[in-house]
Design goal:
- The chain is mainly α and 303 residues long.
- It is built from 5 helices and 5 strands, in the order αααβββαβαβ.
- Helix 3 packs across helix 4.
- The protein starts with a helix and ends in an 18-residue tail after the last strand.
Length: 303
């Protein structure tokens, strides 16, 4: 019985020791759970704070982007306004201490002065600018016309100089041809002579020497006899006609002072000249006898 009591006592002591250890363990468990709960609460709070911080950061980023977009839009608007204002006038520096009201008063005064000057000038800035542009266009047009006229005048002057030079060459060629033709026709009667032409003084004269044995410059036309003068005149006319382009050539009473020999030679020379002048018509009128001239296909005699 005592032994059983002793065993029971020992068992009770062991159970009491185990209960004590269980109580200590449970106390530790409760303490650990409390720490765990506090840690969970701190973790939840930290997560909430982190999420709130991320949300604040996102809001701040969006606010920054919105602000930068607004700043860019405002900068673009300011740039456009500045460019438009610069077309009217360059940027004006505002003095220190100026207020919007003081600037408006100055602007009103300037507008009043501008209106007064526009009234005195007879138009506003745009009207004056349009009138100035119109006058500038007219001036440029007139200047171009003057330049064109000057170029035309220079061209005409050059053309006139060239034509004068060609005319001088033509004069010299015609004169040389007439001189040669005159000398050749005089030689038909063994006459000698020269044709004197002065284009500057517009004079035409001739010297003829009927006697081939005489040496000299020749005689003037007024010293020749009637027949010699008429024959020389015929030679002069034929030489001038040869140098001219008249389609019809008429000669009246050319042989009234000629003897029969000079008349025959003159008629022969004129008929030969007429035959050489293709496309030309000669009308010769004479009161003398035409017995030395016979009709042909190109010579018609009307009595």
């Amino acid at each position: 019985m005592d032994k059983a009591k002793e065993i029971l006592r020992v068992c009770r002591e062991e159970m009491a020791a185990i209960d004590s250890e269980v109580d200590e363990i449970q106390a530790k468990i409760r303490k650990t759970e409390n720490k765990k709960m506090k840690s969970s609460e701190r973790r939840d709070a930290a997560l909430r704070n982190k999420n709130a911080a991320f949300a604040d950061l996102e809001d701040a980023r969006k606010t920054k982007e919105k602000g930068e977009k607004q700043r860019e839009d405002l900068a673009t608007t300011v740039g456009v306004w500045t460019a438009q204002a610069s077309k009217i006038h360059e940027r004006v520096a505002v003095e220190g201490g100026e207020t919007p009201k003081s600037i408006e008063r100055k602007l009103e005064k300037l507008n009043a002065d501008l209106q007064r000057w526009e009234t005195r000038l007879g138009g506003n800035r745009q009207e004056i600018a349009e009138a100035a542009a119109r006058k500038i266009r007219e001036y440029q047009k007139a200047k171009k016309q003057v330049a064109d006229v000057e170029r035309l005048a220079q061209l005409l002057k050059t053309t006139l100089v060239n034509r004068k030079e060609r005319w001088k060459l033509f004069q010299r060629a015609i004169t040389a041809r007439a001189r040669v033709q005159f000398m050749w026709m005089l030689s038909e009667r063994s006459f000698r002579g020269r044709l004197l032409a002065n284009h500057k003084e517009k004079k035409l004269d001739l010297v003829v020497e009927p006697d081939p044995t005489k040496v000299g410059k020749g005689r003037e036309a007024k010293t020749l006899s009637g027949g010699e003068k008429s024959f020389s005149t015929i030679c002069l006319l034929l030489s001038l006609w040869d140098a001219m382009g008249a389609p019809v050539r008429c000669l009246d009473e050319f042989d009234v002072f000629m003897d029969s020999v000079n008349r025959e030679v003159s008629m022969r020379k004129m008929i030969e000249a007429a035959r050489y002048s293709i496309g030309k018509q000669f009308v010769l009128i004479t009161p003398g006898s035409m017995g030395s001239v016979s009709s042909s296909h190109d010579v018609k005699i009307i009595k």
